[in-house]
């Protein structure tokens, strides 16, 4: 809590993260080896998020891959590493790390389940889960597993923490799955 403004710094982080989600999809479309129509989310202020946004994927991978951290920092690392691997075309590594990001944030949510479910912190954790599920769904879609991708996109939408990228990615998947005319 920032006592000068009375605002939660966690809430501010979520606002900046949402902005970064949009920026990443717009800024990397031309250079990405994966389908540029899918959008992934990166946590900007942690775990080399800015390097990933600057398309310095190898730098981010080199520094993040060796880190083993638990808790929310472990989630930040796994989520951003997932995006770096995905954007660099290392799909097997992306799958493994995306799975870790999802299980890490699910464990955090479970650990804090006794708290008010509508608190800003819990809402933030649910948003992070939605981002992680959507990112993993993109990996599934790119790897040719549309049913698994759909399951993750739908699960992201069901987190009760609206995240636009999951909805956009589900719509993209439906377009990709539609028969050619």
Describe how the helices and strands are arranged.
Layout: H1 9-27, H2 49-53, H3 57-64, H4 71-87, H5 91-111, H6 120-142, H7 146-157, H8 164-177
Describe this structure in words.
The chain is an all-alpha fold and 181 residues long. Helix content is 66%, strand content 0%. It is built from eight helices and no strands. It has helices at residues 9-27, 49-53, 57-64, 71-87, 91-111, 120-142, 146-157, 164-177. Helix 4 (71-87) runs parallel beside helix 6 (120-142), helix 6 (120-142) runs antiparallel to helix 7 (146-157) and helix 7 (146-157) runs antiparallel to helix 8 (164-177). The longest helix is centred in the C-terminal third of the chain and has 23 residues, at 120-142.
What portion of residues belong to β-strands? under 5%
Gross morphology is globular
Q: What is the element string, with H for helices and E for strands?
A: HHHHHHHH
Percent range for helical residues? Answer: 55-70%
End-to-end C-alpha gap: 55 Å
Determine Rg (CA atoms, Å).
Answer: 16 Å
Number of DSSP helices? 8
Q: Characterize the largest beta sheet: strand count, sense, and whether it forms a barrel.
A: none
Structural class: mainly alpha
Stretches where pLDDT is under 50 for at least 5 consecutive residues are 1-34
The total count of strands amounts to 0
Chain-averaged pLDDT: 78
